Amino acid sequence: MKKYLILVAITILLLTISAIFSYKYRKGILTAKKYLTEKAIYRNQIVSDPLIDKIPKNEEEHIFGLDLSHHQQHINWDKVLENPPHFIIFKTTEGSSHTDTKCEKHIKEAKNKGILVGGYHFFSYQSSGKKQAHHFLKNLKLQKGDIIPVLDVEFSKNMHSDAWIKENIAAFISTIEQEIGIKPIVYCEIAYYNRFLRAKYGNEIHLWLSDFRSKPNKNFVFWQKTDKYKQTGIQGTVDYNLFNGTKEDLTTICY
Question: How many angstroms separate the CA atoms of 84 and 151, rounded?
Fold first, then answer.
């Protein structure tokens, strides 16, 4: 009898655990579907200011650049110069404590090769926007002639409420503006802009828009066109970005 009761208890326990995992699995699927549905809604919203297209028609005149991080550990700069990008924006920091291990070295090497550089901060939902902005500026070491700072904001599975996100992105942007006198460029998808930035900022901020399908129907300074670009001197594939203008226009987004 005792063995029978133990067997029944184990069976009930296993069924309970199975039910819990099944619920969490179904909940995860529903959450993912809701996330993708909402993202599609914001992506397809009509924008109030259609693209002002200043990208040269001739591809040979395109002003292109890369965004790199510690993932590109070994760069052969002499090879890079065989087809030199007009600019490179390097990951500098993430959150309120992480610093990219290759940023300082990469920026120094790129500058030595005459390439225009800038730095970006990857926004975290784990600390305040103000703390992140101070951490970014401390490590960026912005110099005259560099591309103005960039804030990288992206959708994530573990995000706060919309109110928290809007408040802390605003805190990041205002802190940067207070310290250097200009708002940062913001890298994001059009869906992210529509959801978290559009109502407050409208056309007040420079946008670096990511869209691997087509040119965004919204004014931008940079368009991240693909993450499958092959650059001589760098192993693997990298992000390819077009500047919306001519080489001379690049000075308008420099510090």
Answer: 24
174-233 pLDDT, tens per residue? Answer: 999 999 999 999 999 999 999 999 999 999 999 999 999 999 999 999 999 999 999 999
Q: What is the pTM of this model?
A: 0.85
Structure tokens at 174: 């205002």
Neighbours of 39 (CB within 10 A): 16
**């991080």: which residue's tokens?**
69
Residue recorded with tokens 């404590």: 97
- Cα–Cα nearest to 118, from 151, 149, 86, 141: 149
CATH class, range 59-253:
alpha beta
| CA-wise closest residue to 160 among 123, 200, 125 | 125
**Contact call for residues 137 and 92 (beta carbons, < 8 A):** no
Where is 186: in which H helix or E strand?
strand 185-188
User: pLDDT, tens digit, for every residue of 39-85?
Assistant: 778 877 877 788 989 999 999 999 999 999 998 989 999 999 999 99
Domain boundaries along the sequence of the chain: 1-44, 59-253
